[in-house]
Amino acid sequence: MQNLTKSNKMYSKVLEDRPKPYFQDIIKKDHLKPPSVLTEESCQYIGSDDVDRERYFSKEFHNLEIRNIWNKVWQFACREEDIPLSGDYYVYDIVDQSILIVRTDNGDIKAYYNSCLHRGTQLKPSNSCGFSDILKCPFHGWSWSLDGKIKNIPSDWDFPHVKKEEFSLPEVKLDIWGGFVFINLDKNSIPLKDFLSILPEHFKDWDMSKRRKAAHVAKIVPCNWKFAIEAFLEGYHVGETHPQALPYTGDINCQYDYWGLHVSRMMSGLGTPSPSLKDQKISDSDVIESMQDLVSYLDGDVDKKNINKNEKPRDFLSNTMREMLTSATGVNHKDFSTSEIIDAIQYFVFPNFIPWAGYGVPIVYRFRPNGHNPDTSIFEVILLYENDDEKKETSPGIHWLDEGDSWEKAEELGGLGMLFDQDEAAFRSGQLGLKASNKKGSTFSLYQESRIRHFHKTIDKYLSL
Prior knowledge:
Number of strands: 20
Distance between the termini: 26 Å
Shape: globular
CATH topology of the largest domain: Naphthalene 1,2-dioxygenase Alpha Subunit, Chain A, domain 1
CATH class of the largest domain: Alpha Beta
Low-confidence stretches: none
Helix content: 25-40%
Mean pLDDT: 92
């Protein structure tokens, strides 16, 4: 108890020593006040121990993750708009498992193991999507209806021992939140709503089901899936990895929160310089000047000559973003708070789902192991824009980049590609460095990297089950 009290005092001192302005100080000054969920704070001391470096490259640890995590948790598999019509299908692969998600004739969505009950051939190729009015094996032609019932067995005279009523495709547990289709390989898992914890309540003002995909880009990256995720769980790396953003974004003054086992959050205020630049006396006009590049990344058609430099930086950015979002989506954004429009409000749902809240940064990240290679992983970036109810645009397919490609090759990401290139450079050096190190583990900070600590705490909990 004495050591715990000492640790809590140490953590309290860390909280007191955080650089200002705090995120809450920034949003309190906004003319358009944020919703109450953005004024919440939820953090506590998690621990100070190092995290064993071998969990990033050990095959044994990888196998434990497959058995105790990927076979047990709810995973975001696809969006509803990926399969809008009867017969549309989407294949979600996780390590050795392949899940075939289909829209049935009555409009329901079902998930099946992507395997023929004859000799196991995949019914649809891995990582594919498309349309098919039946689910037919490409090897011998066994076929099933969209609702999983056996439809045809070629030469069925030779299979008198097959009871057709027992040969429906085995289903995988499926549920939907906010237009996101989730699957779970564990039939005894807790309900999705319980797994998501506070997420549905926090997102009630940001209806994700009304959003539609504008882009979906995927790439195999040179690091373990956990190392890739961790780069997006903290703002501590911004100063070194994304220095161009320091004049207009919070980094070491981000706010970090976590709830239960599965959900955490990071919030960063834009339109205000990093506290690390406090000695450089950054003026409002300097901040706006630097943000012109940010705006041009998001919309190359913005005319810098028309920018009013007399505006406060956060007002400038929010006004500009409102116009851009309204023009792009047809939805009027004038009544949303400044923070919802411009700030980086990023949630994480264990083990691999990162949706951004608000409206200005319509990003979703997903991370997965790349088969059985713990030194690489699959990183996906999805852009989701709110559309009016009448717009039911066709969802874009996945744009797979080659391993050597720059993220800027995905033009649909705009200027975000440069940021992902910067992150990927850290992925490669991080994975190689972990394997070369003679230090037993990674040393995380108590606050700025607390979401990473929370992440590994949850991993440890699942591995102990």
